[in-house]
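Possible regression after last week's pipeline update?

I re-ran a chain I had predicted before the update to compare outputs. Posting the input and the new output here so someone can diff against the archived version. Not blocking, just want to make sure nothing changed silently.
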Amino acid sequence: MAGSVAGRIGGRWAGNDLRVVYADGELTGRMGGKWVGKDVALSFDGAEPTGRWGGRYDGQDLRFSIRGTEGTGRMGGDVVGWDIALVQDGDRITGRIGGAVVGADVRLAARDGLLTGRIGGNFDGKNCTLQVDGVPYLVAAALAAMVFYQLYLDAASTAAST
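New output (post-update):
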């Protein structure tokens, strides 16, 4: 089985591209650009994408498990990280990443090979536009959440360094 997920999370200036290929039980690719970005290396058995994005020292983990129409997991580490809880109801994927205070709502539409919508609020959220081929929409939504989380980490790092 082969497939791909490609597109953008966020706008032209404050966003990241995502390009991931699915082949031989691996989801591999890149978020961001050629010079400023992070590699994605996940194992995927058809129900559980797990692995890492970024480098050995500055990277983050992703664990996500699909059971029927629900997906749950965690991004980042066990102590510092965000939970993921997504539900697919027909062509809608909704849920939350993060916690009750710090996090973001997920509101996406999945149809005709496209995953579109918004992660986060009207002011501080990011648009999602992904082309999905041969990868479950819930997995593509988890990848979009991963990019959103990295954008959050990058913004927090920039704010802390000023």
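Follow-up from reviewer: compared with the archived run. The longest strand covers residues 2-10. Marking as no regression found.
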